[in-house]
Design a protein that fits this description.
heterodimer; A: 282 residues; alpha+beta; Ubiquitin-like (UB roll); Fumarate Reductase Iron-sulfur Protein, Chain B, domain 2; 2 domains; five-stranded mixed beta sheet; 10 helices; 34% helix; B: 277 residues; mainly alpha
Chain lengths: 282, 277
């Protein structure tokens, strides 16, 4: 019976694992732990009896009820972040068996289908750890601020109805609007590296999600008034040209956001913008 | 955006885009001509305008091409421009490559391998080009086993001798040099084909996944063809006997000489001139 555990396992292989899952088994949950910012990391393993349909969050809740490692030592409950528990908020993103994904939608049956199998949980490596599996994703939101990922509608009077939206444009924008700012694309990106120095956030790589959001708001009838601001930011250090085309982002995106297409689209907008700036001056 | 970060911002993009552009024009275009010219040592066998038969015609065709290039006006300016472009592309490339951190161990997609290989082949390519130009163009013969000095009037024979490590047969060091050439050209052709594919995304030419796939087929096709030309040339020079080739080249007069000039004399070393017909 072939079982795919490795991090490169495909969704199909994982679905196949679900059918092979053994009832009433106990699996090992191996967690990379850290007591606080700047503190050293350590590994702890926990034996977890699996219930049908159990996800990683339920696994962590079980550990919180019985914080005893597999070698019998009493420890503290594992700290993690979570919100919606239905893969739309992005808070519970962590590195599971080597790849980034949401722990709420991660079924134990897919990753550890047999008795004694191990499932490995680590915090994302590109963001500073607050504690255990909980990381600070502030830089992700800082990137969204850099590209002004919003529609400017504040003012002293009502602006009236927005411009008409074509079906075709709507279809392009909808896919990008599904981004939940989870951080998977940044975690998987070889060009996006951890930057503990907050003052460098504005010149280090913005990340694939921010480039896609710039495309989304540049395509918005009202949002496009800030198009040049967004492109000017993405022309600078840490902008779209820092992308190395490894295309990991689009493969790990849980929402299937067309990240690489957006990088190409913003590349095109930046090319045209730079020509305009060169020949027109602004 | 304030007025002060205008230049900083545009220079960042300008350098990135010049890095991308320089890989295609002039370096990529030059690579295209360079490799097809080299391959003439094999495809020249079909060149009926040249004397002799089979690969003798190849040697003659290659010599004809090399002589033509050496008679180009302002060749040194073209060469210096290429060296500057390659230097610019290399220095910025190393700087950019160091800004990333490969993670193929965790994310084993072909695209991620491409990303890593693009950087690795770039590093290998820098060393290879430096060795290649230093030994065959700048005359750093102390780096060539057998001490062969490449001569544009005895193009195939001196190159074959440099690859063999001696005028006669293959020496151990010669095999190492030949292997180095195989690795070097393979890396550079991959680097060019993949760079051409990613440049289209960088400039925003290919946006949709379908467009990227289609352009990928074009780049892969070009890469395979160039790889074929590069390997063909290398095999051609490896099976070329320096002594036999020198006879053909001397007969062609190397453009103006009927006997080897003093450079070629150095190059031939111990090889007796009596081999001449």
């Amino acid at each position: 019976m072939a079982i795919a555990y490795a991090h490169e396992s495909t969704a199909d292989q994982r679905r196949a694992n679900r059918k092979k899952a053994v009832d009433g088994r106990t699996v090992i949950c191996k967690v990379k732990r850290c007591d606080g910012p700047g503190k050293p990391s350590r590994w702890e393993s926990f034996k977890v009896p699996v219930e049908p349909g159990m996800n990683v969050i339920a696994c962590l809740k079980h550990i919180a009820q019985n914080p005893v490692t597999s070698d019998g030592k009493t420890t503290t409950p594992v700290v993690y972040d979570s919100g919606c528990l239905e893969e739309v908020c992005g808070a519970c993103t962590m590195v599971i068996n080597g790849t980034a994904r949401q722990s709420c939608s991660c079924l134990i049956d897919e990753y550890a289908p047999r008795e004694g199998d191990t499932i490995t949980l680590e915090p994302m490596s590109k963001f500073p750890v607050i504690r255990d599996l909980w990381v600070d994703r502030a830089r992700l939101f800082n990137s969204l601020k850099r590209v002004k990922a919003w529609v400017p509608i504040d003012g002293a009077y009502a602006l009236g109805a927005g411009p008409k939206e074509s079906q075709a444009n709507q279809e392009v924008r909808y896919d990008i609007s599904e981004c939940m700012s989870c951080g998977c694309c940044m975690e998987a990106c070889p060009q996006f590296n951890i930057e503990p120095d907050e003052s460098k956030w504005d010149t280090s790589f913005v990340g694939p999600h921010a480039i896609a959001q710039a495309r989304l708001f540049n395509a918005h009838g009202v949002g496009k008034v800030l198009k040049n601001d967004r492109l000017d930011e993405l022309m600078g250090p840490g902008g779209v040209s820092d992308c190395g085309n490894a295309q990991n982002c689009v493969k790990v995106c849980p929402k299937g956001v067309p990240l690489t297409e957006s990088i190409g689209a913003i590349g095109r907008q930046v090319t045209l913008r730079s020509f305009a700036r060169f020949f027109k001056g602004r | 955006m304030t007025a002060t970060d205008g230049p900083r911002q545009s220079h960042h993009l300008l350098l990135r885009r010049l890095h991308s552009l320089s890989g295609i024009v002039p370096i990529g275009i030059f690579l295209l001509f360079h490799l097809t010219t080299n391959a003439s040592v094999v495809w020249g066998a079909a060149n009926t305008r040249m004397p002799g038969e089979g690969l003798e015609r190849g040697v003659a065709t290659f010599q004809h091409e090399v002589s033509w290039i050496n008679n180009m006006p302002g060749l040194l300016i073209i060469e210096i421009s290429l060296w500057l472009a390659i230097g610019f592309h290399s220095i910025l490339g190393v700087f950019y490559a160091m800004s990333g951190k490969s993670n193929v161990g965790s994310y084993r997609h072909p695209d991620n391998w491409r990303y890593t290989l693009q950087r690795l082949t770039g590093y290998v390519g820098i060393f290879f080009i430096l060795y290649h130009v230093a030994t065959l163009r700048w005359g750093w013969t102390f780096l060539v086993p057998g001490g062969t000095l490449w001569s544009h009037e005895f193009a195939a024979s001196t190159l074959a001798a440099a690859l063999r490590g001696s005028q006669e047969g293959f020496t151990g060091a010669g095999i190492a040099v030949s292997l180095g050439y195989f690795i070097g050209i393979t890396c550079l052709v991959f680097h060019f084909a993949n760079g051409l594919w990613t440049a289209a995304i960088t400039w925003g030419l290919t946006v949709s996944v379908g467009a990227q796939k289609r352009w990928g087929v074009v780049c892969a096709g070009l890469g395979v063809a160039l790889m074929g030309a590069a390997w063909m040339a290398l095999i051609g020079f490896l099976i070329t006997d320096p002594g036999d080739a020198r006879v053909i080249e001397a007969r062609m007069g190397g453009g103006s000489h009927s006997v080897p000039d003093e450079h070629a004399d150095d190059a031939i070393g111990a090889a007796p001139l009596g081999r001449e017909p």
